[in-house]
Design goal:
By secondary structure, the protein is of the alpha/beta class. Helix content is 40%, strand content 13%. It has 19 helices and twelve strands. The longest helix is centred in the N-terminal third of the chain and has 23 residues. The protein is globular, with a radius of gyration of 24 Å. The two termini are 37 Å apart. This is Extracellular solute-binding protein.
Amino acid sequence: MKNKRALSWMLSIVLMCSFVLSACSGGNKDSGNGGDASNSASVSPSSSASESATASDEKHDPVTLKFISWKDTYNGLYDLFHQKYPWITIEQVPVNGQPIMGIIQAMEAAGTPADVSEIDQDLIAFDQNQLLEDLTPYIEKSTIMQGVSLPQGFYDTMTFNNKKLAVPMVDVPMWILVNKDLLAKHGVEMPANDWTYDDFRNVAKKITDPDAGEFGLTTQAEFQMRLLSTKAVADGHAANLQYMNEDLTQSVMNSPEVMSDVKWLQEFVTKDGSMQSNDAATASGNVSREFKNGKTGFAIGGDWVLPGLKKEAKFNWDVLPFPRGTQSQPGYTIYGPLSLLAGSKHKEEAFLWLSFQFTMEAQKWKIDQGANASVIDPALTAYYDETEMWKGKNTEAVKIAKENAKIQPGLTVPGWGEYNWNNIMNDIIFGTRDINDIIPETEAWNKKTLELAASLK
């Protein structure tokens, strides 16, 4: 092992010297690696000699990276990565419904550790079990990561105790899906991108016709999961999604202002009739539960719904950003965490897979799938108008959703799994649970998360 490391180091020195000689002779050119910084000579040879080259002439021992992922849609991305780093192959380890932490531990125990993994629960638990590598030194040495512009606070939801525990594998945006045919049938024009929550409610009422089995909103939990807490932010009732305060230490779900927001959405069911309750949807054959059925005007959608819509929807659909509140027009996005595992035997190669996510080719591939670009770059913004995914659709809404998106918290909030913001809202909005149950639930969790935070210091 020592001889291999020494050989790799010597090869890196030789490469560095060849780069310097080439520069002195006037032949120094950008390597064409998308997000790579042009001043790669400032990076130490041990950090990323391979990162700043496309490896066309370099000799490398073949490496297979074991990547734990529950998705089977990344084959195109694996191919792009292999083109850039031909000596590295991605071997996907399927999840098959198992807890990812258990898969990581089992593979380590078997002597065949995984290298990188998507994460399916809070990062604190993985960190406490010493399963994740701190990405900070890798990011600081990476020509790719140092050569791209990222949104302010990009790492905030994935940092704990000053350790960067993950980067987003994918930035999953949310939009309001719109059934334009149903709007037209009721004489309603497509709303503008700066529409308000009042507009949203009024249109939903106008296009509701229970006799025809048509409703303004799809009966889906996504409305309370995504839209309701976004409205609280838009109206200044909460600083963060899921009704969290500014520093993510306490929930304000039990505040009078948020309780008023809950009543607002509840009235779509109990007063307006523009969204069916769970019982009513079941009784009417569940038609209103699926936007692609064409019987509802609005739904919450993300990249996962686009393939089905494009293939199965028999009506003209489009997207809008989340509406504007009294103070702002935030959107909603989810970061899918991607971590370098502490037990990996190929950490530098594994980080190449992480950093590759932020190259131009990978970012464009993700836009092609309906996801957001994480990197701030005019060329990527322009690409929303070029991709086949959004051809003929409201691409300005997609851009607004990206620019205004708030990031779903929770990955590094102590006790997040015990925070009952989701189930209680489902029971209130779509069922018959008493809205006042929010108060003791929130008080109990606020106390618990503070206690857990203190114990983790």
